[in-house]
Amino acid sequence: MSPNGQIDLQRQIPRLEQLPRPLYARAERLRAGSWTARHTHDWVQLSYAISGVLGVHTAEGSYYAPPHWAVWVPAGLEHEVVTSMNAEMRSLYVRRDAGAWAPERCRVLEVTPLARELIKAFCELPVEYPEGESAEARLASVLLDQLRALPEAGFSLPMPAEPRLLRLCSELVAQPDLGHSLGEWAARLNTSEKTLTRAFLRETGLSFRQWRQRLRLLAALQPLEGGASVTEVALASGYESPSAFIAAFKGLFGVTPGELFRAG
């Protein structure tokens, strides 16, 4: 309980000097509004959403995992994990030498049915499972092989470092349905539309239109998972019709909203 009488939803980070085995698992049920302080650790973290939508935020951007997707956080990267609704999460910590094959960047990964069952089985093992040629060590090895093969998804939102663009993007994150055109933003920032276009692409790797569309679609994940209607979410996201929203959603996620959350 916090000093003002409200429930403190900050999650505590495990105090580990090192991982006892190449893989370490945590199972958690998170209340709506749960969060961690920004932190780093000397191992990879895979945050896997069984239910709810997880958000992982870094200085470079934000990464979102709806049910049965996961966020891969490289060792040494400062990050925080938040959820605005009830969620169930499995975390896998991977020792640096066991995940040396992975790129040194945050990624959102699709958790395949086989990987899902392997994670479930691994979470039942003791923390200090037998090593060597044991069945438990073989399970950990197969799970690591499966993690290596997981397909990457584009559920990320890169943030610019340039201060003016960062202010622009922060305003849009706070209010995704803002309809200002690129020209209107350029006027507000006292620059030309062409200069702003080039800067946006250089800083984020996306055009302004692509970035704003991705923001709106990622922001829609949590209300959709919470049971809001597609029509309600589409209009709140700045789309003129549910059909336009569904088409854009399928273009980014590869499935419609209904298909995504049925799969979850």
How would you characterize the overall build of this protein?
The chain has 264 residues and is of the alpha+beta class. It contains ten helices and ten strands. It has a six-stranded antiparallel sheet with strand order 1-7-2-5-8-9, with no helix packed on it. Strands 6-3-4-10 form a four-stranded antiparallel sheet. A hairpin with a 3-residue loop joins β3 and β4. α1 packs antiparallel against α2 and α8 crosses α9. The longest helix is centred in the middle third of the chain and has 15 residues. The chain is globular and about 65 Å long.
> Which range best describes the helical content: under 10%, 10-25%, 25-40%, 40-55%, 55-70% or over 70%?
25-40%
Order of helices and strands: EEEEEEEEHHEEHHHHHHHH
Beta-strand content estimate:
15-25%
Which geometry do the CA atoms define? globular
Largest sheet: spatial strand order: 1-7-2-5-8-9
Our count of helices gives 10
Based on the structure, what is the oligomeric state of the protein chains? single chain
Largest sheet: 6 strands, antiparallel
Distance between the termini: 33 Å
* Extended strand count: 10
What is the overall pLDDT average? 88
Rg (CA only):
20 Å
Coarse structural class: alpha+beta
| Low-confidence region ranges | 1-7
